[in-house]
Amino acid sequence: MAADDEPRRGKLYTDLSKVPIYLSQSRNGFSLPPFRRWRAADAIAGVLGTLATLVLTVTALPTGYGLYVLIWGAILTIAAVIVLGKLPKYGPSALTRARWRLEARFPRTSCTHLPSALAGRIVDARTGRLARPAVR
User: Fold this and answer.
1) Cα–Cα distance for residue pair 96/108, rounded to 1 Å
2) Which of 10, 54, 65, 84 has the smallest CB count inside 10 Å?
């Protein structure tokens, strides 16, 4: 019986450098909001908004409006980050913008019908559509 009273030995792993920890995914029902990549516009708006809010709050403390400045500064900072987060990731390229300018400067019209199919037809002023050709 002495052998049964001995404590069981277990292994304790102290090197956790290879264990991945996922903060945004949890199996027990609790998870942090999904992480997203920050872009320059989001980050600049967040940092400048936070700094401006803190500076304006400290300067407004003697007037008694410090709490209002803090609340409105936080609301405006959060709104700016959200709005700038909605911007598309990539804008049109320089070549696309040049093509747009060229097309705007020299517009061209095109027709989907052959000129012979349009011969003898006129635009109906009431509907704005082509009227049937006159019977000859």
Assistant:
1) 17
2) 10
